[in-house]
Amino acid sequence: MKKRLLAATAAAMLGLAMAWAAPAAQAADPLTLQLKWVTQGQFVGYYVALAKGFYKAEDLDVTIKPGGPDINPDQVLAGGGADVVIDWMPSALATREKGVPIVNIAQVFQHSGLELTCRRDSGIKTPTDFKGKTLGVWFSGNEYPFLSWMAKLGYSTDGAHPDVTVLKQGFNVDPLLQKQAACISTMTYNEYWQLIEAGMKPAQLIVFKYQAEDVATLEDGLYVLQPTLDDPAKVARLARFLKASKQGWDYADSHQAEAVKILLAADTAGVLTKDHQTRMVSEVAKLIGKDGWGYLISADYNRTVDELLSTKSTPVISKKPEGAYTHAVWDKAFK
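Above: the chain's sequence. Below: its structure in token form.
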């Protein structure tokens, strides 16, 4: 009996000693991602990465913060409210020129989804017909590609007698449905389909894609602040974030029906519909580069900068940026 008691005591002490000797469980590294807009198929890869445990597998505790009409991702980043934000490059470069050291670490959308969608009964057949018409445009940083295009066409957008009247467009398609504007801004994956779902027929519309008009600029990319890139540990964390995000996007592309279910589950506002998100996930997949996911191609960057500098009277940026992007995080993640 005494021997059994001694053995049990020794085992207990050994276990206690091992417990003290074992390293404390390490908490996953936190990382907050600020979206450019509300929860929707545009960001499906990140939600899938979160739901399928791809971030957790990379020892990351990722928080996804939806955006909205009153949320500027760059301001959130500058204010310390996020580690990574999603933004369009024209907006990011304009912010950088104003003094915020924002840097692109990955370019997820390698093709543009931006377009101007016009009513055929407006009489518009080509961009030269825009003159004298009212065109709907998003602001809050989304207006820069439009302003650059109009400048390239030689059309003024302000002053007492502008060549085109700019309608500050809300985040719906009502201006076109109600004939308040001849054209409105749409995305291939969202507002165009809202028009169709509202009852308009494709034959009633004429669409001018920025990509086809050779005025496209880079859209959804991932941005951080420069000081983050000066810390090797944070760069490693960002690289793990890119690896897991790519897994999310790849999985969403090959399991679109499941990806839509994940989106609907993440929609705390309860406003998403299955049919619209199914279209959105399918269309967004077309904007992702198939080779080198997230790699910012220098030629695409230079084209965007050239477009933004092409406006002679009121350029979006006044000079070529220096250090506005880096491949360091991408290289660490995928090379």
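The mean pLDDT is 91.
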